[in-house]
Design a protein that fits this description.
heterodimer, A: alpha+beta, Aldehyde Oxidoreductase, domain 3, Aldehyde Oxidoreductase, domain 4, 3 domains, six-stranded mixed β-sheet, globular, B: alpha+beta, Ubiquitin-like (UB roll), DNA polymerase, domain 1, 2 domains, five-stranded mixed β-sheet, 5 helices, iron (chain B), metal-binding (chain B), Diverse_Oxidoreductases (chain B), metal ion binding (chain B), iron-sulfur (chain B)
């Protein structure tokens, strides 16, 4: 009998390479520890009463009956919080947001009352005992009407506010772009909506807040992608000294940006613990998650692309109306109110480009930057990749040929784009060529023509479409001089300690939500120190145990914290050199690093491994003056630039023109994220993002009716892709190292979510021969598009 | 009301509210937090357990309905001989990322292979169609289940 394939039949690499994940042993046993698994002695449970109205004045709140419930321990209203100065909290975008509503409710699902009870059922029961009297107000639901002179003013809490305008922001050279457009042979325009969608991690948001009244220490177990940022926010908002706050992010069941921000339920739980003296747990239900916590996108875009008549792209001009909901709570580098949307020139060499983004308030939940968007690069990539197809459609050219003719060339890197980014590295034609070869593009086009001819001849059968997208991302924020969140520069710390026996502990500021940090970061250190990744333990997600840093979102773990891990390991390696020199009684300059050892140049037999050096560093070995014992180091990594991963995606769909049903038959994805630390994990990240793209392109939508009722408030209505909608993904890779990252790696966690929606949409529209229709391309929308009358999907059909 | 539920071979007698959901009995009363809760509406399948040998979504089963029945959860997969093959194959094929859907996927996978030891890719996809994964795009879950089927086949053939 041959050996069973088991969990250990892939050898552990010394460093980079495929390696099975360390975290899986607990997850497959059901022994992960998620926030809702945390149970503390005497723990109470919170529940939130939410607004049924999109816009209404609160006339009265009567909580007396709820307070009389035998199992209720505290009832917290907006007035309770106002008495403590906590009714409003700062957002990550220089606005304020209500914690519990005091004056008005501004979206359906907004938090109004927080109840703390002995169990989760009793807390819910008590909500039904609360009487809130509302005076409904006309809501602003359609973002395109938000700036109408007669639009109701949503933010009358802000001094002097007489409209729903949030910001105007622009990037690029308007005059140069206008000049390019004025002289262009062809200009194609298109209105595109990237609808409101939701990251919907399978685990909703939650917290266990525990204030120790004796020590004054607040311990927070919470679903947070950014523990250190949250610690500072609690300090700023609640006035608790920062050293008396410990944030613990246990295992997180998916984040995708949903778990970056600070939610009212978190603060209410802290207040609940303060008031009751007991730990308070609050776990969102799914409807609360979909209705109130950070949504994504909602960009209404008007795109213009200027070109020669043979398809050479000359310029891009974009106007965006951004629906930010009732509070401007986008989680992104503070100096960029539209995130990194201005990377919208994508992968093409254009002479000039300009975008203007206007943000508006509406009576919807706040948020906007989430769902693996790389700070709005999803919207940018969708825009440019859709516009290239619109241009190809208008010119009657093949979209693959148009892309190939306009892609940046390898010799143009580093490339300074028209909106100010410096792309670090790339070989785009090679990547697109590989994708076209893998897909068998020419053969697909022949099959498509045959299918269309058969359909037109008989009126029966299905159509097929081929959609391409070529994306470029800018991830790994970021250089602290230009990128910060609430004034905190986006640099990340790392601490590495090598024990006397040669095993190591690495502490980082970022926090995995499923990305496999425990494995990848151990591999990084293993590669740098020549020890097994099995001998490296990662500590993350505990502010008392880890150095400061901004967390995991925007695909920044590998570009920033990963680089920090490399640099701190190299610091340790250099210290080890001095110790090794003392051990070998040679000068440090006489040593060279070779396969995990410091050895004497020209005498490879004389050498010491990290384990030998570590023991000596803790021993009575005579060290040179000024050299401390032990073997550890700290560092802070300030990235010099972002990293620019890219890829070519090709989607093949079958569309039944009779029913409008689109089925993804194949999906070819060639990603270039530079050096891959663990290729298995990278491929897994890509798989997940491709499913996101199929979901957004075909299924996912949060629409609203005229009254502001949320029409996607459960998984019955907010449709996520299942195994049946997803094909078996076909992946390829090219490797163009980042020149400034210490191991040449780039971020990849969001690449596929960014790049894939356009490929799916392009494929469906290619199948039915329609110039444009907005996502999601549900059977109804496709059927309407075939009839020449696609709808705006974000508003309920009247 | 009093209920008697056998979970992973151990009998539990509990006084519960009639409305208590099975998922909350398992998680909050019995401390078996491997079974997860994800949606309220029987869509996501993070809460899948077996009841009398059949996968059910425990967010939509009352604890009272499980009285007198045998429930098997992810904690009951590992045996004296170590991890169940589906657990080993999920590790081997990177069939999980955040780990939140994993217990439900494993319970369905085990049930599928018990009833169809050599499922096609389509049969695997249909078996997990009532469950959501937000991380893997399903690819490696499907591969994991096929891997488990092959491993069990080669083991049975060699026995």
């Amino acid at each position: 009998m041959s050996a069973l394939p088991g969990a250990t039949d892939v050898p552990t690499p010394m460093g980079h390479g495929p390696m099975l994940r360390k975290e899986d042993a607990r997850f497959v046993r059901g022994r992960g520890r998620f926030v809702d698994d945390v149970r503390l002695p005497g723990m109470l449970h919170g529940a939130i009463l939410r607004s049924p109205h999109a816009h209404a004045r609160i006339l009265s709140v009567d909580v007396s009956a709820a307070e009389s419930h035998p199992k209720v321990r505290a009832v917290i209203t907006g007035e309770t919080l106002a008495g403590r100065g906590l009714a409003w909290m700062p957002t990550l975008s220089h606005d304020v947001a209500a914690v519990l509503a005091t004056d008005k409710v501004r979206y359906q699902g907004q938090e109004v009352v927080f109840v703390v009870a002995e169990d989760r059922y009793a807390a819910r029961d008590a909500l039904s005992l609360i009487e809130v009297e509302y005076e409904p107000l006309p809501p602003v639901i359609d973002a395109r009407r938000a700036l109408d002179p007669d639009a109701p003013v949503i933010r009358d809490d802000l001094d002097g506010r007489a409209d729903n305008h949030v910001f105007d922001w622009e990037s690029g050279d308007a005059a140069a772009t206008d000049a390019v457009f004025a002289s262009a042979e062809r200009v194609s325009t298109c209105d595109l909506l990237y609808p409101r969608v939701h990251p919907a991690p399978l685990e909703t948001c939650g917290i266990v807040a525990d204030l120790d009244r004796i020590t004054g220490k607040l311990t927070v177990h919470a679903t947070t992608q950014a523990p250190h940022t949250h610690r500072m926010l609690y300090a700023l908002i609640a006035g608790i000294p920062e050293h008396k706050i410990r944030i613990i992010a246990p295992d997180i069941g998916g984040g995708f940006g949903n778990k970056v921000g600070m939610y009212p339920g978190y603060l209410c739980s802290v207040v609940g613990s303060v008031l009751t003296g007991a730990p308070v747990k609050w776990t969102e239900d799914r409807s609360e998650n979909l209705m109130s916590s950070s949504f994504a996108r909602d960009y209404h875009m008007h795109g213009e692309i200027a070109a020669t008549k043979d398809g050479r792209i000359l310029g891009l001009r974009v106007r965006v109306l951004a629906d930010h909901g009732a509070f401007n709570g986008t989680a992104q580098p503070s100096k960029f109110p539209a995130g990194f949307f201005h990377v919208f020139t994508g992968s093409y060499d254009v002479k000039a480009a300009h975008c203007r983004v206007t943000g508006v308030y509406t009576n919807k939940a706040p948020g906007g930057v989430a769902y693996a968007c790389s700070f709005r690069i999803t919207e940018a990539s969708y825009l440019v990749e859709r516009m290239v197809d619109v241009l190809s459609h208008d010119l009657g050219l093949d979209p693959a040929a148009v892309r190939m003719a306009n892609l940046l060339r390898p010799e143009q890197f580093p490339y300074a784009c028209a909106t100010g980014w410096e792309y670090d590295s790339g070989d785009y034609p090679r990547t697109l060529t590989l994708a076209l070869e893998m897909a068998g593009y020419d053969e697909l086009r022949r099959e498509q023509a045959e299918r269309r001819a058969a359909y037109e001849a008989t009126g029966r059968g299905s159509l097929m479409g081929i959609g391409i997208s070529f994306f470029t991302e800018a991830v790994g924020a970021g250089p602290r001089r230009t990128m910060d969140i609430l004034g905190l520069g986006m640099a990340d710390g790392a601490e590495l300690r090598v024990h006397p026996t040669g095993t190591a502990v690495l502490r980082v500021s970022c926090m995995s939500q499923g990305q496999g940090h425990e494995t990848t970061f151990a591999q990084i250190v293993g590669e740098e120190l020549g020890i097994s990744p099995d001998d490296v333990e990662l500590v993350q997600g505990d502010t008392d145990q880890t150095p400061f840093g901004l967390g995991t979102y925007g695909s920044r773990s590998t570009p920033v914290s990963g680089a920090a891990a490399v640099m701190v390991a190299r610091k340790v390696r250099e210290r080890a050199r001095i110790v090794a020199a003392a051990m070998l009684e040679v000068a440090p300059e006489d040593l060279e690093w070779h396969k995990g050892r410091w050895q004497v140049a020209g005498d490879p037999a004389a050498g010491r491994t990290i384990a030998q050096i570590a023991l000596a560093a803790h021993s009575d070995l005579d060290l040179p003056d000024g050299v401390e014992g032990h073997l550890d180091a700290t560092c802070v990594y300030n990235p010099p630039n972002l990293t620019f991963p890219f890829g070519a995606y090709i989607c093949v769909v079958d569309v039944d023109p009779g029913t409008g049903q689109a089925t993804v038959r194949r999906f070819v994805a060639v990603d270039d994220c530079g050096v891959r630390i663990n290729p298995m994990i990278v491929e897994g990240q890509v798989h997940g993002g491709l499913a996101d793209g199929v979901g957004m392109a075909l299924m996912e939508l949060m629409a609203f009716d005229d009254d502001g009722n949320h029409l996607g408030a459960s998984f019955m209505d907010y449709l996520l892709p299942t195994s049946m909608e997803c094909p078996s993904w076909e992946l390829g890779e090219t490797v163009t190292p980042s020149p400034h990252h210490p191991i040449g790696a780039k971020g990849v966690g969001e690449s596929a979510t960014v790049g894939s929606p356009a490929a799916v949409v392009n494929a469906v529209l290619d199948a039915i021969g329609v110039r444009h229709a907005d996502m999601p391309l549900t059977p109804a929308q496709v059927w309407r598009a075939v009839q020449g009358r696609p709808i705006r999907p974000d508003l309920a059909i009247r | 009301m009093q209920i008697t539920v056998t979970v992973n071979g151990t009998e539990h007698v509990r006084e519960v509210e009639p409305r208590l959901l099975l998922v909350h009995l398992l998680r909050d009363e019995l401390g078996l937090t491997g079974t997860h809760w994800g949606c309220d509406t029987s869509n996501c399948g993070a809460c899948v357990v077996w009841m009398d040998g059949t996968p059910v979504k425990s967010c939509t089963v009352l604890a009272a309905m499980a009285s007198g029945r045998h429930v098997r959860t992810v904690e009951g997969l590992e045996g004296h001989a170590g991890l169940d093959q589906v657990q080993r194959s999920f590790i081997r094929c990177h069939g999980l990322q955040c780990g939140f859907c994993t217990p439900g996927m494993l319970m369905t996978a085990r049930w599928l292979l018990d009833h169809n030891p050599d499922p096609s890719e389509t049969e695997i996809r249909e078996a997990i169609a009532g469950q959501t994964c937000r991380c893997t795009g399903y690819e490696n879950i499907v591969r994991s289940i096929r891997h488990a089927a092959r491993a069990e086949k080669s083991r049975d053939g060699a026995a």
